[in-house]
Amino acid sequence: MTTRVVAERRERVEAAAKLRVVLYCRKSGPGDKSVADQERVGRRDVASQGGVVVAVFTDNLSASRYRRVQERPGFIKTTEFIRGGHAEMLWTFANNRAHRDLDDYVPLRRICIDTGTLWRYGGRTYDLSKASDRRAANADALRAEEQSDDISDNVNRGIQLALEDGRAHGKLLRGYRIVRDPDSGKALYREPIPEQAALLNEAADRVLAGESLRSVSADFIPRWKAIGGKGFFDQAVLARVLVNPTYAGLRTHKGEVIREGTWEPIFTREKHEKLRALLKDPKRRTHHRGTAPIHLVSYIATCGECGKAVAPKLPRRKDGKAYAPSYRCVDGHVGRRIDLVDEHVHALIIALLERPETAAKLNAREEDEQDVIDTELAKIEQLRADSDAFVKGMAKADLPPDTKARMVASYVAEIEDQIKVAQDRIDALVAAADPLLRDLAGPGAGDRWRKRTLEQQREIIRRYLRIKIMPVARVGRFGELGVEVHPLAAMA
């Protein structure tokens, strides 16, 4: 028997003698970082208790009881794993990571009792067959549900009050800053940043004077960055900023103007109305001025062999006659007729834009994103207030210092994780917004696509498609086209 086989057998025997633990990690926001962090904490904690992790199940969605339309496949697999007798302990980062509310907690408690499975969270192990541990876990579950209810009520109340008072709410717009109380750090109001407000007004005046958005945005971008402006800015974003009622001091809700706001506007009401009349005019068309590309995917599509951009070429035969124009790799790896490639890309884009799921995805984001951002910002504020209150309360509690320290550390860590989840949602919504694509998707997308200028079509392709021209054995009208198109983001 080889040394390796002996070592593997010894490792299996040692693992079999340890407590088998299943980890369930859940994060309710986009991305995997928090789940990975929870798993690292869990593995370290389990190792310190002399256990061995035999399985890890995860979910990246909310466990809120107000989102019951979402199933949690990772949680379902975890309970099935426990019922199958494959683990002696369940580990979660906190009590409320494993359930939505008491309706979910009670069945989980029953599974742990029936199977003799221990439950460990917050640095403590609970044997739910024991009355004392059961009472402690019950109290944690009740507090988690009450906290969720309080946050929901306070968030909704805060949004409604802000709406009635005309106060600013939601994401901070370009050109504005938040003024905070120097002592508490609490947000007091929002005000324009003078240099950025002046540049936005200049852009508005130039557009109203007849200058194209393309020309204004080309000059605007470097100047915006030079004065500390943040955020991506192209002509589509500039157009969206110029017609946004918030810049005229108007409070909106679900896309409708409700009343005048309490913050200082950047645009006058008169200028705002002129901008909307101009930029929302369906007869408006954007025209090229000066040199512009004349092919759909030149310098956008890449060579499938070396990854370099392809360029348009007009090759000639030895007798001087020209071949059909083609996209060619600068190193000569690939070449394909321009008309065949463009025809293929046009057809694919129209098919993607007319898919119901593409339009649904974009429309849902447009209608819901502001409400979600308002909710998440209010939730963050409430969570911070709850954390401060808990820490102050624990300082006065009649408990041993080490117990208080453990409870505060566990509670604050959970609150910070929830704050990061809320901030992740806000960041994802802000980054994902793109009116250029939203205006295209849905029934009749083909007609709208064909009416776009070549420059606009190329910009959409640049953002949402990755095109590769691959080497093939035979090219031409009856040969293999060899063009790979990979949709990204909302078009995927």
From TrEMBL:
Coiled coil spans: none
Cross-referenced SMART domains: Resolvase
SUPFAM superfamilies: Resolvase-like
InterPro entries: DNA_bind_recomb_sf (IPR038109), DNA_bind_recombinase_dom (IPR011109), Resolv_N (IPR006119), Resolvase-like_N_sf (IPR036162), SSR_resolvase (IPR050639)
Boundaries of every Recombinase domain copy: 173-285
Pfam families, A to Z: Recombinase, Resolvase
One term of GO molecular function: DNA strand exchange activity
Top-level lineage group: Bacteria
Name of the protein this chain belongs to: Recombinase family protein
Source organism (scientific name): Nocardia pulmonis
